[in-house]
Amino acid sequence: MYAQMVQSEATKDDPEKLAAFQARIDRDEKIEPKDWMPEGYRKTLIRQIGQHAHSEIVGQLPEGNWITRAPTLERKAILLAKVQDEAGHGLYLYCATETLGVSRDELTEMLLDGRMKYSSIFNYPTLNWADIGAVGWLVDGAAIINQVPLQRTSFGPYSRAMIRVCKEESFHARQGFDAIRKMAEGTPEQKKMAQNAVDRLWFPALMMFGPSDKDSTHSAQSMAWKIKMNTNDELRQKFVDQTVPQIEFLGLDLPDDGIKWNEERGHYDYSDPDWSEFFDVIKGNGPCNVDRLAARNKAWKDGAWVRDGLLAHARKKAAAKVAAE
Ligand code: FAQ
After folding, report:
1. Which residue, judged by its Cα, is nearest atom 39 of ligand 1?
2. Atom 20, ligand 1: which residue's CA is nearest?
């Protein structure tokens, strides 16, 4: 299948150019925006980096919801900083996508009208304060496992954005673990809230890595081009192996009776999420899809006057420059 997919993309481009391009990838050279690249490589990057940017932006919503209700001033300041970081990540990633010849406005329109996706995880609600700890610990934890290898991805602007993003993500995961630890070590009621958050978010966190390898449509080609460095299942396994000892440390349980150390494989066995739920969520039918897109559409509409104002200023400056020449 792997060779077949590479071949099918190859037919769309000049074979000599394609071979030279693949040789550069195989030598671990970075591809920069002005370099020749196959059309499929450009499209795949726009899809993946654009989807990643949208995830950072939409991902502010479930946490932003709790800024005014954080239990202490310290937790509020930390959460505020984290949510602002996510906005920054979205902006670096939009910039990286723009180097591929698509504008931020076009990307935003594709998000708002449902042509582009964002991560499935952000279609689940954050119902109590412990969810904020669980999001930082599990969701940012999963994001780091996915993003650390992407620092070595073949496209220069994406790789450089990932280096910066990963530094901030590791603070996010630590603050999340600290917040959930506090709840797990708190009163019986607080511990119950922490367990409830883990029960609801564990399987959605596993889904973040994408469908199982047999159902992943893009992995083979994306790995040949080093847009992705690992398969979805490889990264999911890494996440499970990292998280099981942490849950034991917290004195909480994972909602999966299938978790068991497998001596032969040197990994934990675990149960798959309900893949029909995943495909339903990415089709737009998750618990919060409608709300998330409505919030982004409203923000875009409400911000129109700012964009118009900035554009008017830029137009005036350009006209003055022409007049002065
Ligand atoms: N959600 O063939 P594959 C974060 C779609 S950042 C929705 O395996 P691929 C930080 C996929 O697009 C989280 N859709 O796809 C944060 C494709 O559909 P399409 C975002 C998904 O691209 C924390 C179809 O399924 N991170 O959390 C998902 O090779 C807290 C077939 O799948 C990134 O985007 C999903 N989970 O592999 C922010 C990382 N999975 O497009 C705020 C970069 C798959 O053909 C608060 N992206 N699909 O219609 C990647 O590494 C890859 O794109 C994968 C998916 C691994 C996500």
Report:
1. 52
2. 52
The Cα 135–Cα 16 span in angstroms is: 47
Return the SS3 of 24: helix
Check if 131 has its Cβ closer than 6 Å to any atom of ligand 1: no
Q: Is the pTM of this model over 0.85?
A: yes
Q: What is the pLDDT of residues 129-152, one digit of tens each?
A: 999 999 999 999 999 999 999 999
The answer to whether residues 219 and 172 touch, using CB atoms and an 8 Å cutoff, is: no
Query: Strand 260-262 relative to strand 267-269: parallel, antiparallel, unpaired?
Result: antiparallel
Identify the three-state secondary structure at position 49.
helix
Look at the block and give the residue holding tokens 């995830």.
55
Contact 19, 10 (CB under 8 A): no
Q: Which residues contact 14 (CB under 8 A, 6 or more apart)?
A: none
Strand-pairing partners, residue 267, are: 262
Interval between CA 121 and ligand 1 midpoint (Å)? 10
Amino acid identity at 55: S
